[in-house]
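Quick one - inputs below.
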Amino acid sequence: MAYPDRLSGLFEPGLLAEIRHRSVPRHVPAGNTLLEPGQIVRSVPIVLSGLVKVSRVEPDGRELFLYYVNPDETCAMTFTCCMENQASEIRALAEEDVDLLDVPVKAMDEWLARYPTWKAFVMRTIRSRFNELLHTIDLIAFQNLDQRLADFLRIKAKAQGSSLINLSHEAIAAELASSRVVVSRLLKKLERDGKLLLYRNQIKLLGDL
DNA sequence: ACATTAAGTGATT
DNA sequence: AATCACTTAATGT
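Output:
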């Protein structure tokens, strides 16, 4: 199986062999949901390729972008849920075609005690997400939507490896739980400042924000 | 040519 | 920053 090869830089050989034997490869086409809120988490996905968008879904249907899970990463939320077989608090959606390895809860629990690199991997992803979330909480608390928008565009561009973002203002507003008009205005300002170019359903980032 | 959807803008809360 | 109301621009049929 070719999958775990790309993980060889992350884990020791013993663990790689375990991953090979106990994880289940899964392919998720772009646009499909990996996990809906309320669903019981039974396995932890390790993303091999593609891009997974993780967002919060409010009862009224509104959405709030939280973070992307890139290749060689895992979803931090699933760790916290799956240990106690808790329901998911978030939605995970494949934004590009995704190849991943499903690691059963039982296996990842055992590895936590046995393999230092696994423990480090888990801790690292939880810590970095936690810091990311603290950052966005700061921005929301101080009502800095312009910063949050800039962050979103930067992260999106980096995650998909292209400065061309194919999203309508409406779609971006939905991700940030804001309104289209506000996003349009902020984007227009960024364009005036020479930070990006606006087209219909498309945004071209210039340099860094 | 017409209908539909995306984006721009002033005024108001 | 959000909402409303309205205009203008781009796209689909």
